[in-house]
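Bumping with the actual sequence this time:
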Amino acid sequence: MKDYYAVLGVPRTASDEDIKRAFRKLAMKHHPDRGGDQSQFQDINEAYNTLSDPQRRWHQALEDEGWRVAVVTSAEQAW
């Protein structure tokens, strides 16, 4: 499991605005159209997509503490 906070270079206590600011800075620096590395850019995007979504961020926090998280789809919830 990747440490998305380390990928973006922010502390675990970072606000949504801090995460967005770090993402934009790194995305500009590592964007493939600007000569950056494609795989590093993808890691940055993955980190931002996870940490910018409150539910995914919560799951990340649980996994960091060693909990296994099961994602339940809406079809499974209806059952």
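The tokens above came from a reply further down the thread. The chain has a mean pLDDT of 86.
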